[in-house]
Specification:
This protein is about 50% helix and about 20% strand. It has 7 helices and 6 strands, in the order αβαβααββαββαα. The chain has a 4-stranded mixed β-sheet with strand order 1-2-4-3. A two-stranded antiparallel ribbon has the order 5-6.
Length: about 150
């Protein structure tokens, strides 16, 4: 499965998509012991970026990309793609502004692929704003991880 995700990030980067890794997969990268069945991406909600995003998904063979439009991506908080693996594309994340998060991004490096991601403070802020029960535990662990740095 990791190879599929790496191909996704590689293709997004090749197509100059402005995206940030968020959610459970990023929490795991910061040391939260949990599992996730999807990848959550925060997209810059512009038509040009949504076009590049859909082009990247099409290149990966994600047929459901052809069922949506750049306008749909930009006007919908979460667009879910499920055909190769589950991918949640978010254009609005509670507690975050894309431009500010983009300016404060950090990069994860996985097998020499650079993955733009929200920083730990923004991840904590988004989890606080979401307010889901499992986010509370994640926040505690993320705060401890931040202190260790």
């Amino acid at each position: 499965m990791i190879d599929r995700y790496l191909k996704l990030f590689e293709c997004l980067n090749k197509n100059n998509v402005e995206y940030l890794l968020i959610g459970g997969a990023l929490s795991i990268a910061y040391g939260v012991p949990r599992v996730t069945k999807d990848i959550d991406l925060f997209l810059n909600p512009t038509i040009a970026n949504a076009k590049a995003f859909l082009k990247a998904l099409s290149e990966l063979g994600m047929g459901t990309a052809s069922l949506t439009t750049p306008e749909d991506i930009c006007n919908t908080e979460v667009t879910i793609f499920k055909d190769v693996f589950r991918l949640d594309a978010l254009t609005h994340v509670k507690g975050l502004d894309f431009i500010k998060a983009w300016q404060n991004k950090v990069f994860l490096s996985l097998r020499n692929i650079m993955i733009p991601s929200i920083n730990i403070d923004d991840l904590i802020a988004s989890k606080k704003a979401a307010g889901r029960p499992h986010d509370k535990k994640d926040i505690e662990i993320l705060k401890m991880a931040k202190k260790r740095k």
